[in-house]
Amino acid sequence: MLKVRVIPTLLFKEVGLVKGNSFNNNRRVGSVLPAIKVYNNREVDELLLLDIAATPSKRSPDFETIATIMPFCLMPLTIGGGITNLKDIQKLLHLGVDKIVINSYAYENPNFISEAANKFGSQCIIVSIDVKKNTQGEYECYSHNGTVKQNFNTIQWAQMIEKLGAGELLLNSIDYDGKMAGYDLEYINIISKEVNLPIIAAGGAGTADHTLQAIKEGASAVAIASAFHFTEQTPLSIKQFLGEHGVAVRKSKK
Amino acid sequence: MNIAIIDYDAGNIGSVKYALELCNFKCYIATEGKELSPATHIILPGVGSFAQAMKILHERNFVAHLQHAVLEKKIPILGICLGMQLFATTGYENGTSSGLNFIAGDVKTLVATETKLRLPHVGWNEVVYSSPNFLFNNIPNNTDFYFLHSFHFACHTTKNILSLTPYGSTFVSSVYSNNIVGVQFHPEKSGKLGKQLLNNFVLNWN
């Protein structure tokens, strides 16, 4: 049986890792290499590394840093931030990255999703949708690390992403990000009903129970950042809890 | 020992190289067919689409050299993910294209049958042995390995099936024929037991 993945998420900005909070006020939490080594040693299911400064500063992914961490990555690694062309994807895969995340550039050029999927296979192309609810209670899509509103209907955009050939959706809520008060379950529920792609829930996990709720709403994987940096919880403790509650998880080390 | 890792532009060759280096194996990246001649072992890694991968293997003159190394010289070869799928007779990703035809089979899209399954098949899933093989030495049956794919290898004959993995029904998760082995999952991304599998591939043929 396919296991639910617990995915530690590292937000990378210039030279170090930061903790997000509604995509603002990032707090430095350490440099990237020691974190990679710890997660590799713990045999986590997958690791997500998002370079949140790349798009706002209009630059490509930080290949140099990624090349430095790859020899310590005997685990699946996904990289996002600043990806706008096929060459960059090729370079990342060549370094040993398994999947890449596209967000801002997908709104500008939706066909980029299908070009990337055709060349590298759907399975390695993840599209991320960052949303925020407006005053009418409707979800709206945002790009550029939550700073630019996009006039795309969230559900239609998710369906279009699937049609264009992406392999997974990373659903993140700007309002819930970094609050550790739980995922935006309504958002996960709505999208998981409308698409057949695996869904990675992101933004808001504080406890193991939050991850269980997201899985019940249809998530195939749960991304966790703050709760791993600022609480005693580990990927193992989350998976133990999930296992006890009937969710199929992979056994891994402490 | 000198392991050739085939670079066909769309592969995640970096991870394979690092994993082999962690095992203390000597390896090199081969970017065109003739560079395969000093190889004692060959690894055909994979991320990409079938048609595109075959096109580049032809362009870089890998196909004839692979046939010579694998079918005549009997050099051990390990295919990983798309690399394993390329061993098949025919691929049906982005149209119909001929594969390397090392193991009779077709590469088709995974179909979500009875239950509603999400595709692609991404994540950790168990590998259930169909027949014992040196590739699985010191790896317990039903171990979870990391998968990342939308297509699967449908073998023409069951004798080439090494293991199955359940997803809806089941699909073939590894294949073999003499000096040829292929795995649908990623040993280079599957932690310690993945490393063990690479060890088994390299050392058991030495």
Write structural notes for this entry.
Chain A has helices at 32-41, 63-69, 86-95, 104-108, 111-120, 154-164, 185-194, 208-216, 226-230, 235-244, and strands at 5-13, 16-21, 24-30, 47-51, 77-80, 99-102, 125-133, 139-143, 148-153, 168-173, 199-202, 221-224. Chain A is an alpha/beta fold and 254 residues long. Chain A has an 8-stranded parallel barrel with strand order 1-4-5-6-7-10-11-12, surrounded by 7 helices. In chain A, α8 (208-216) packs across α10 (235-244). The longest helix of chain A is centred in the middle third of the chain and has 11 residues, at 154-164. Chain A is globular and about 40 Å long. The mean pLDDT of chain A is 91. Chain B is α/β, with parallel strands linked by helices and 206 residues long. Chain B contains 5 helices and 13 strands. Chain B has helices at residues 13-22, 50-59, 62-72, 82-85, 191-203; strands at residues 3-6, 27-30, 41-44, 77-80, 90-91, 97-98, 105-109, 121-129, 143-149, 151-155, 161-167, 169-177, 180-183. Chain B is globular and about 50 Å long. Classes of the chains: A alpha/beta (254), B alpha/beta (206). The A-B interface holds A 1-5, 43, 45-46, 70-71, 73-76, 90, 93-99, 118-124, 167-168, 196-199, 220-221, 250-252 and B 7, 9-19, 21-22, 47-49, 52, 82, 93-94, 112, 116, 118-126, 144, 146-150, 166-167, 186, 188-192, 194-195.
